[in-house]
């Protein structure tokens, strides 16, 4: 029976262990990357300011000009 320096034997046990360590570390980095990507893609509504939301509502016709101007003054005060 042949033994190498690390005592893993000639059947490649060391390389099998190293392979699985690389796979597990790769999976960990992949999950970490996916989580970071999902955090950077936040819904636009959560990043919009109150004035942006008001402007969009006015552009969609949800509110009239008078209500838009009143709410705009309220926001800017």
Report on this model:
The chain is an all-alpha fold. It folds into two domains: 1-41; 43-77, no CATH class. 71% of the residues lie in helices and 0% in strands. It contains four helices and no strands. α3 (50-60) runs antiparallel to α4 (65-76). The longest helix has 28 residues, at 13-40. It is rod-shaped, with a radius of gyration of 29 Å. The mean pLDDT is 82.
Helix and strand arrangement:
Blueprint: H1 13-40, H2 44-47, H3 50-60, H4 65-76
Helix pairs in contact: 3-4
Please supply descriptive tags for the structure shown above:
2 domains, single chain, 4 helices, mainly alpha
Radius of gyration: 29 Å
The succession of helices and strands, N to C, reads HHHH
List the domain count as a whole number.
2
Overall pLDDT metric: 82
| Number of separate strands | 0
């Amino acid at each position: 029976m042949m033994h190498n320096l690390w005592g893993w034997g000639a059947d490649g046990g060391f390389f099998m262990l190293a392979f699985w360590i690389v796979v597990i570390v790769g999976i960990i980095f992949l999950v970490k990357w996916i989580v970071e990507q999902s955090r950077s893609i936040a819904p636009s509504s959560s990043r919009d300011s109150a004035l942006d939301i008001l402007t969009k509502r006015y552009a969609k016709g949800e509110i009239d000009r008078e209500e838009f101007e009143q709410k705009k003054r309220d926001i800017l005060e």
